[in-house]
Amino acid sequence: MFSKKKITVAYTIEQCTKCGMQVKRKFKEGDVLFVNMTKCVSCDGLTMIEKIFGESTDQ
Ligand SMILES: [Zn+2]
Question: Which sign does the torsion angle of CA 12, 46, 18, 44 carry?
Answer without folding.
Answer: negative
